[in-house]
Amino acid sequence: MNGSNDDIDRIQRRLTALRTEVGKRIVGQSDVVEQLLVCLLCDGNALIESNPGLGKTTLVRTIADATNLSFSRIQNTPDLMPADITGTEIIREAGGDREFVFERGPVFANLVLADEINRATPKTQAALLEAMQEKQVTTAGQTRELPRPFFVLATQNPIDQEGTYPLPEAQTDRFLLKILVDYPSRGEEREIVDRYTTGSPDPAVDRVLSRDGLQHAQQLVRELPIADDIRDRVIDLVRATRTAENVEFGASPRASMGLVVAAKARAFLEGRSHVTWDDVAAMAHPVLRHRLIVDFRAEREGTTADDVVAALLDDAD
Quick one: which of 149, 201, 151 has its CA closest to 179? Predict the structure, then answer.
């Protein structure tokens, strides 16, 4: 790895501090926080699925505040047009002259929260797809680069599907992780109530990691070594999804690459300089669950993609 041990230790300490800052506003959800930080370290995008009111917006905004990243939120609706998120050219008058000026949309931010992405029309989803994959948008025949680093964290509600447009497989595959946010425990919910009904409604967080620091951490994660046998086991695990029972469509090679880099990022977050199989196992569900399509029989019996991944992990041990 490029960078001295002191440099690596400094970045890892700041990532630990970042978790602490997130904990000032978010109670519990340690796995969700870890997976979001993994996503940022991998320079990837995440699809966050949960019921309403579980703090997704607060979590994403807190990460932006603690990393000095510009933040924007897009509330997707069926009448939202691509220009509403990418921006559009407007006519501006100055001194009697008229000129076309590009007015940037909310996608021009480091961290974009796309709320209820499955309520956007396919045309708007396609505009987001270009932003996610190419880190750029095309408007009025001109391509414009997005700020770096750039992440899309999209949410969807699993219970209210009326008036939604299911994400196409090509776009779903662009998300590095699919993160599930569950209800807090009783003790955690009590702490949430106490914290937000007696104290400051929005506790201040410190900026503990700069944009340059985050990009440097991303480079260090890429350079983290992984043993050949663990890499090969990852490949075999992903390939097994294509022939697994109950699976109609398995994961692509993009999943193999995603699982390797996500395991590297988790190891880096844990303060280690090598990847273990535990890192792979911890990231297998969020990397694979949205890339598998179970067949009709399995769906009828209640078998989920997570069940398939769990069975494949058992076989791989």
Answer: 151
